[in-house]
Amino acid sequence: MELKMREGDALPKINKIITSNKIKEYAHASGDLNPIHIDPEYAATSKFGSIIAHGMLIASSISEMMTLAFKQMWVNNGRLKIRFNSPVRAGDTITTFGQIKTINNADEAQKIICSVTVCTQDGDTAISGEAIVTISK
After folding, report:
1. How many whole angstroms separate alpha carbon 83 and alpha carbon 128?
2. How far apart are CA 50 and CA 71, in angstroms?
3. pLDDT over 70, % of the chain
4. Pairing with 135, which of 46, 105, 110, 117 sits 20 to 30 Å away (CA)?
């Protein structure tokens, strides 16, 4: 199956408010109960100064965006290579966006490489990286 996408095309934007409740729910669902995520008194003494969201909670918005763009093909054949750049705090609004950088066509498959970014409302880049989808022809 070949997609009708071109290099330079934007991926669907995702906007989310990260609440303290979402952070707590993620902590319990993932089993990551690090006090930097759930204990306000501990977090206040850290270099961050307050509770921060789990990096993978924020990264999940990238997978959501890629699923919107590529449907089951992302789920079946997606890869993600990301860097965590700055923390996201409760109350922050994140925007996840991306763009198709290259489309490599081979006999057996089409490899789509996308740039992906998550920013906060202040313009800080929380996550940056690359997502790759391989689509069998």
Report:
1. 5
2. 36
3. 98
4. 117
